[in-house]
Specification:
Length: about 475
């Protein structure tokens, strides 16, 4: 059972009905039972369920111990115990096959392990630092870790922001529930109209990197950047929407990242919960920017190395993280040169033009790093990037070459029109326009007409077909 399956929404509807039928004080029990049921169905085996329950029990005990004995050694041991399963599952086979040349092991991979591991670490660290009190009710702690709308792909919650929302029963609020429906519908649009359709071209080009070079790689890089954002934002939108049905507000995880004017700004907008986690539990404990410029840059590099390792096993993920660190360091070191360039080009008064130049440059830098991230390995990624500058085949945009990548001209029109709609909506939201509020203020018959048009449009033009699989979200693999 996944966020894109029919039975998931049957389950959600049943859970919502039971939630509002229960007395206010007992409504959190429905969320716990629903989370346990969802996780069991999502795993399909007892092994994954056992791993997460053992992890929860260990984290619960460690939290109580840290509450009594706030020692760094206790925290370090507890964090190590939480990280070990993730390290073995996510990096074990890479070490065995690539470094030790041994046979791979068939690991049990619990759903959402990369996300709930960070969630538990932040909980333990916050107890150690005196920010929160340890949860004494094991069932309530299990709900905090396993809350089903967010366990698969986040956002990565903090205990002090989410716990009380889970444990306090919420009254039915039409505006909140309708807002949740909007978010779920928007998530389906992002997933089926953009992410899964772009994936057809992306998979074709990245699957044959020595056949498709030059401008093909440029097309794949742009589409993968959009695909990854649309896919991940779709899952987060659905997560937030389902939580809204229970009156619960999950944290935002994106703020139009491709409208960023620098790579630093990009990381304030992309995967916000992970960025904040890395800042609060890696960058700041290392010293942050408090110990001079050189130490600041070292801390930044180490933080992005951790980010790369979290995303996956292999050298390419570390290089991807190092690229983002380098972007930010170079950006800070060249601020004077940038100001002179703006003055020389006469862009001081053209604020709008300057912003769009910075946005385009930032997108280009991020896209180049995404090619490394998506490629089969580091060497292939570097060769693909190199071919953009070596191979000059701009003619692919003027003949039918792009139509041989898995999408016909009608599908390209749907994809490009959907991307344009996402772009326009993002620009409007950047200016503070809240579409859900505008829709909610419309008469009921207009709202329902709009719902039906959107549902019909997604069902008609969504990316379906032979071999299509809408079940898997990209970040579910991390």
């Amino acid at each position: 059972m996944t966020y894109m399956s029919f039975w998931f929404y049957v389950f959600v509807l049943a859970a919502v009905v039971l939630y509002y039928m229960m007395p206010m004080k007992g409504r959190w029990v429905v969320l716990l039972a629903g989370s346990l049921f969802f996780y069991w169905q999502a795993m399909g085996t007892a092994g994954g369920m056992a791993v997460i329950l053992i992890t929860i029990a260990a984290a619960y005990g460690a939290g109580l111990l840290l509450q009594k004995v706030r020692k760094r050694s206790v925290l370090a041991l507890a964090v190590l115990l939480m990280i070990l399963p993730w390290l073995c599952i996510k990096n074990g086979n890479y070490v065995l096959e690539v470094l030790l040349h041994k046979n791979a092991v068939s690991w049990i991979v619990p759903v959402g392990i990369s996300f709930y591991t960070l969630q538990i670490i932040s909980y333990l660290a916050d107890i150690y630092m005196g920010r929160i009190e340890a949860q004494r009710n094991p069932a309530r702690f299990a709900l905090y870790v396993m809350f089903f709308p967010q366990i698969v792909q986040g956002p990565i919650p903090r205990y002090d922001r989410l716990a009380e929302l889970l444990y306090t029963g919420h009254s039915f609020c039409e505006r909140t529930v309708v807002g949740g429906f909007y978010r779920i519908l928007w998530g389906f649009f992002l997933k089926l109209m953009i992410a899964d359709r772009a994936a057809v071209v992306v998979d074709e080009i990245f699957g044959l990197p020595y056949q498709y070079t030059g401008c093909y790689v440029l097309v794949a890089g742009v589409l993968y950047s959009i695909q990854l954002y649309a896919d991940f934002a779709a899952c987060i939108s659905i997560s937030k929407g389902v939580a809204n049905l229970f009156g619960i507000q999950l944290a935002d995880n994106f703020h139009h990242p491709y409208l960023a004017v620098s790579v630093k700004d990009f990381w304030h907008r992309w995967h916000i919960s992970l960025s904040e986690w890395l800042k609060d539990y890696i960058y700041i404990p290392l010293g942050g920017s408090r110990k001079g410029r050189v130490r600041t840059y070292i801390n930044l590099i180490l933080t992005f190395v951790v980010s790369g390792i979290w995303h996956g096993a292999g050298l390419r993920f570390i290089v991807w993280g190092l690229m983002h660190a380098a972007y930010q360091i170079i950006g800070q070191l060249t601020q004077g040169i940038q100001r002179k360039a703006v003055k020389t080009l006469g862009l001081e008064e053209a604020a709008g033009t300057r912003i769009w130049i910075r946005r385009a440059w930032t997108f280009l830098c991020v896209m180049i790093a995404w090619i490394i991230f998506r490629a089969e390995n580091l060497r292939t990624g570097l060769q693909m990037i190199g071919s953009i500058f070596r191979v000059h085949n701009i003619w692919i945009f003027t003949n039918d070459a792009l139509l041989a990548l898995g999408l016909d001209w009608k599908e390209w029109i749907v994809l490009l029109a959907s991307i344009l709609l996402l772009f326009v909506v993002s620009l409007k939201q950047e200016k503070g326009i809240v579409f859900s509020e505008k829709i909610f203020r419309q008469p009921l018959y207009i709202r329902w007409a709009l719902y039906l048009v959107c549902i019909f449009g997604i069902m008609t033009y969504g990316a379906y077909g032979m071999g299509y699989d809408s079940q898997a979200f990209i970040y579910g693999g991390f």
